[in-house]
Design goal:
Oligomer: heterodimer
Helix content of chain A: 25-40%
Radius of gyration of chain B: 18 Å
Structural class of chain A: alpha/beta
Radius of gyration of chain A: 24 Å
Strand order of the largest sheet of chain A: 6-7-8-3-9-10
Order of helices and strands of chain B: HHHHHHHHH
Largest interface: A-B, 31 and 29 residues
Shape of chain A: elongated
Strand content of chain B: under 5%
Largest sheet of chain B: none
Strand content of chain A: 25-35%
């Protein structure tokens, strides 16, 4: 079942293209929007949330009750959609409880008091709820924003970098909460530039790079794609020349270069190389002094996904 | 209009506007006006003095009222747009017209308290100026409403609303509308003076517009500003600039 449908959506600012011809469908459960900073994740989230008009293409949400509707200039959509923005701006002069309660009243809920208590309890903010938000840590502000976004029990929850500023305990709690909300049948879409966050939380991911959709679907399949890409390692050992000769004969090695600082090895199979290099050196009595992957930045992983998609 | 007033937004706006000791800041010009009146009353007593027209008309209408309205009118919504907290208000199904009207009502009421009421008090303290005080009070009340609508619109249109407002008050109203007669039809200060002068005719007020003209233009400007602000807020984009 598709809840959010994005068809050929682009968004540009003057000559700068922030999002380029994206098509994706997002259904119930937790979906991670992964990509490096500046990839267009926030732009997509803002468009889904109705706070930015697509320059081209169509974007609709499909509430359980009712017809598919666009989100731009449609305030009624917020009856079934909650948003947790990345920007850390809240009404700092209110207490957490007053903030969530005000949001409940703005949603014209029948029992704003009960809804407020429930949302605060869900986000584990009972103890700090009666303190002014100005005194909150960044992680606590994130959680009270989530409470406010959940107070009207929305079908769709959008979160822009929700784990920023959270300590490990808060992070785990938030992950458990989002997983629970997803398991209940809600559509949870969150953005992150941290692979591990997405890996732990979502079965489905959308990978964005430079405004384009680089990969989409089941996380495990994309993770395999990421790890099976060509990798480059710098290796130093007690006998680089002999190790080079041994590596050349292995199926997972695609190239070996002898440099002044040791060996530079290219491998087509990350897992096999990492498993075998230790065995190979031990069996041949070569001391392994350094094994350093050279291109493990997220950007290089995303770059690979883009190039593999294009080929 | 009451159907458009949202009590939750009104309460939030009042706390944001008057909190953190801002009320004391707004009260400073009013205190200056009243203190000036008391000093002049003590130093120049008598029934034939002209200073009440100057102090209440020039300082009260040309400085106190527009500057108080500028700070409050641009702050009630503009401050939230600038710091990003407006998104929490806008991510709810509340009608945009309701947000604008409620913010406008709060701005007009707070401006009236900090500009129109001090004008009345100062007028009552000045010698033989009770009728003038009432006339200027009514004019200032009307001014609180019109200025609030215009400055609220400015805060939705641009992040430089304060600069726009200062230019309007100082250049357009303070200079051009006194030199060029035609400029008065777009001067809120002259709408207020026109209404005050109709209640208590006084040549020293230099009113350049009739009561009817002042009222009609005041209504058009206020309603027009609120409609435009609502349309602009309906197209609010998260980076702060409507698309």
């Amino acid at each position: 079942m598709t809840v959010i449908e994005i068809k050929n959506v682009s968004r540009w600012y003057g000559n700068v293209v922030a999002v380029n011809d994206i098509t994706m469908e997002i259904g119930p459960g937790v979906t991670g929007l992964l990509g490096p900073n500046g990839a267009g994740k926030s732009t997509i989230l803002h468009m889904i949330a109705g706070f930015l008009a697509p320059s081209r293409g169509t974007l609709t949400v499909h509430p359980v009750l009712g017809e598919p509707v666009p989100t731009w200039r449609n305030p009624d959509i917020y009856r079934s959609l909650g948003l947790v923005p990345e920007r850390d701006s809240v009404y700092a002069f209110l207490t957490g409880r007053e903030f969530v309660s005000s949001t409940a009243k703005l949603h014209e809920l029948a029992n704003p008091g009960a809804a407020t208590r429930k949302a605060i309890e869900m986000t584990d903010m009972e103890q700090a709820a009666d303190r002014r938000i100005a005194t909150y840590s960044k992680g606590m502000r994130q959680r009270i924003k989530v409470a406010a976004a959940l107070v009207h029990d929305p079908e769709i929850l959008l979160l822009d970098e929700p784990f920023n500023g959270m300590d490990p305990r808060q992070r785990i709690h938030m992950m458990e909460l989002l997983a629970k909300l997803g398991a209940e049948g809600r559509t949870i879409l969150f953005s992150s530039h941290i692979l591990e966050e997405v890996e732990r939380l979502s079965g489905t991911i959308q990978v964005m790079v430079a405004g384009r959709l680089a990969a989409s679907g089941d996380f495990r399949a994309i993770r395999r794609l990421m790890t099976s890409r060509p990798h480059v390692f710098n290796v130093r050992s007690s006998d680089d020349r002999r190790l080079a000769a041994l590596l050349v004969g292995r199926p997972y090695t695609t190239a070996v270069e002898l440099t002044a600082k040791g060996l530079q090895v290219r491998t087509s199979d990350f897992g096999a190389f990492c498993a075998q290099i230790a065995v190979l050196t031990r069996d041949n009595k070569i001391a392994l002094r350094e094994l350093l992957p050279t291109d493990e930045s997220l950007e290089s992983v995303f770059g690979y996904l883009i190039s593999s998609q294009g080929s | 209009m009451s159907a458009y007033l949202n009590p939750t937004i009104a309460a939030l706006t009042l706390r944001a506007t008057l909190g953190r000791r801002r009320a004391f800041l707004f009260a400073i010009p009013a205190v200056i006006l009243i203190a000036l009146t008391l000093v002049l009353r003590a130093s120049r007593p008598g029934a034939d003095v002209l200073w009440p027209d100057r102090v209440l008309g020039d300082f009260g209408f040309s400085v106190l009222l527009p500057l108080t309205a500028l700070i409050i009118g641009t702050g009630v919504l503009g401050a939230e747009i600038d710091d990003g907290s407006a998104i929490h208000l806008l991510a709810t199904p509340v009608r945009r017209g309701s947000i604008v009207v409620t913010k406008f009502a709060v701005a007009a009421a707070v401006t009236a308290v900090f500009a129109a009421v001090p004008e009345l008090l100062a007028g009552l303290l000045a010698p033989d100026s009770a009728k003038l005080a009432v006339a200027l009070f009514v004019g200032a009340l009307v001014g609180s409403v019109i200025y609030s609508a215009v400055f609220l619109l400015a805060s939705v249109l641009t992040t430089r609303a304060i600069a726009f407002g200062l230019l309007y008050v100082l250049i357009w109203e303070g200079l051009l509308s006194n030199l060029v007669g035609g400029a008065r039809i777009l001067s809120i200060a002259h709408y207020c003076l026109g209404i005050a002068n109709a209640i208590h005719p006084d040549t020293n007020l230099n009113a350049g517009l009739s009561l009817a003209t002042s009222l009609i233009l005041g209504v058009i400007v206020t309603i027009g500003a609120l409609i435009l602000a609502t349309r602009r807020l309906s197209a609010f984009a998260i980076q702060g600039e409507p698309a």
